[in-house]
Write a structure and sequence with these properties.
Blueprint (H helix, E strand, L loop, with lengths): L3 H4 L4 H7 L6 E5 L5 H14 L8 E5 L2 H15 L7 E4 H11 L11 E3 L1 H14 L9 H13 L13 H20 L1 E3 H13 L2 H10 L2 E4 L7 H11 L5 E6 L15 H8 L4 E5 L7 H11 L20 E6 L2 H17 L7 E5 L5 H11 L3 E3 L9 H14 L4 H7 L9 H14 L3 H11 L3 H21 L4 H11 L2 H7 L3 H19 L10 H13 L11 E5 L8 E6 L16 H15 L2 E10 L1 E4 L2 E4 L4 H4 L6 E5 L15 H13 L6 E4 L3 E9 L6 E6 L3 E6 H4 L2 E2 L1
Parallel strand pairs: 1-7, 1-8, 2-3, 2-6, 4-5, 6-7, 9-14, 9-17, 10-12, 10-13, 11-12, 13-14
Antiparallel strand pairs: 15-16, 18-19, 18-22, 19-20, 20-21
Helix pairs in contact: 2-3, 3-4, 5-9, 6-7, 6-8, 7-9, 9-11, 13-25, 14-15, 16-17, 16-20, 16-24, 18-19, 19-20, 20-21, 21-23, 22-23
Amino acid sequence: MDVTPILESLNDAQRQAVTAAAEPTLVIAGAGSGKTRVLVHRAAWLIDVEGVSPQSLLAVTFTNKAAAEMRGRIEALLGMPVNHLWIGTFHGLAHRLLRRHWQEAKLPQNFQIIDSDDQLRLIKRLLKNLEIDDSRWVPKEIQWFINAQKDEGLRPQHLDDGRDPNRRQLIALYAAYEEVCERGGLVDFAELLLRAHELWRDNPDLLAHYQRRFQHLLVDEFQDTNAIQYAWLRLLAGDNAAIPFVVGDDDQSIYRWRGARVEHIHRFQRDFPDARVVKLEQNYRSTATILNAANAVIVNNADRMGKNLWTDGAEGEPIRLYSAYNERDEADFVIGRLRDWIDQGNARADAAILYRSNAQSRVLEEGLINAGIPYRVYGGLRFFERAEIKDALAYLRLISHREDDASFERIVNRPTRGIGARTVETIRAYARANSCTMWRAAGAVASDELAGRAANAVLAFMNLIERMARETTGLDLQDKVDHVIHASGLVQMFRNDKGERGETRLENLMELVSAAKSFEPDPAGEMSPLDEFLSHAALEAGEGQAEAWEDCAQLMTMHSAKGLEFPLVFMCGMEDGLFPHQRSIADPDGLEEERRLCYVGITRAKQTLYVTYAEQRRLHGMDSFSQPSRFIAEIPDEYVEEIRPRVQVSRPVRAPRSGATGSLRRSSDAEMGVRLGQRVRHGKFGDGVILNYEGQGAHARVEVNFETAGTKWLVLSYANLDLM
């Protein structure tokens, strides 16, 4: 049989993977090396050449879009539909199993799936019914705890409180939540995976049935699997049942905060000691210069499979490194180079501006709006459209204008303060009937119509607004904003929201303070600075974002960029403390994940890559003076062209790479009496860890990551550090 149509477009390594024998196979697929192509052709090869029935294949990926694309490409290769092929996301396939075997899964036949928002509302109702204070037991923290346990395959009865009363209460709330879900026939997303795993674990005959059916198990993005997903796959594979063919890249594992475990790639080799390993290293996306830079960065990670991306394409232009004075200089530079690119006839959509933190987008967005360049924030909202920013602006508007009904409704119960939908409707009805503002209506119904608890909650909210208005009178704009986001409870609310999302929203609120600090009101304007700032925010929220069909520049976080590629890429904010992120600098595992994220960012670029950093940056409401990212220092000089060297260089941007560096550090250790990783204590900044040092004698400086104050460079002779 002529198999050329399936193999003719593949390189040698891809062919090795696609035609691998029926044995466990781990494909380490580097960025841009064609991993989806390999999965698609593997499925087609098994069906068309090996004679495997489509219903004997199970293919798992992480998004519905990827699953649909994979199915379409398999059908195009085969020239026929593959309706019996089970292909989908982990959640989708788990749902399919549970619908078929609802009795064995101990579920009602008509069980209902609840999304994240529904789950949060259910937890809030549970707390209310149990008369538990939701300011102390924050619903989002409870939600995070429950889902994290399920992702680890743990039920309440499996958990030990360790004599910790807080953990004991969380476990009790998890158990109460499970009871509510059981009574209502409700299944959340994490439950889908856990229940599907338990279905197979607790029903050996059913598991054996599916092991006989699924001879081949194809898994995409294997490095992103969490504990329960891996356990589910491992059960199906058994010892000699379904043959796993998994494709992933340990160097692109960037979702640890979601529960993804890069170590599953190593565990796969332990669980299947005879597994074949195929490495896809030929890249079809980027120039040799970009790939060499990415290789040089990622090689600094210790526990990796090891591969070296290469291309038979062009060497390409050097990576351009720009040292900006501050974040506005950085934005001006990026937009200037983007304008040049567009003027040369290139499509705006072929350019991407990447950043580590969502809050960085604000200054870039303002610059794009001023330059008249349409843009789209990929995978997110523009700065002034983000929910937490609109919450803060609503407080500011209501403080300035009590008649703003929209702002009143938005924040009257945010953060939650016991003012329910029925109370709000009572206020709304009074306002309609009496043709007055909701503010005035709230005062009236609180006095005459509402029950004691609801009335007290409404009056407490009104008193809060009045008090904030008094306390911010006479303050500068930035201080007004800072006071309001704290006094309103918004900062604390997002601080209590554990995980990446809460931290991002908190950073955005702090960036709103930066926006107020840099805002320049019209000296001849008739409005107050606050009103002018609010108008500015409203206008920016309504401009600049391109229509879905429009050719526009792409803005996104580096996490959002995974899987995408662009001819022109800007990586902005490459400073220690920002990227790598402050919370990861002193954590070896966290730092390695940040480096993987940098590797992902670099390999998004096909032809041209700019790397920028600012000597001074105002971010999250604070001014900081940072060192260039250590990841810049890991790129060899021959691949980099510095566009504007730093004006005041305290050390090379890219550190020496010879063996002399190590000996210099060792001699400095002896001279200074300190060592890298040593814990120290400072009278003002508290406890910290030494990350770096430079210079000698009286001019020696150390970089210390303090637990509460962040990273600081201190002159050793004046710092009075206590060694711990």
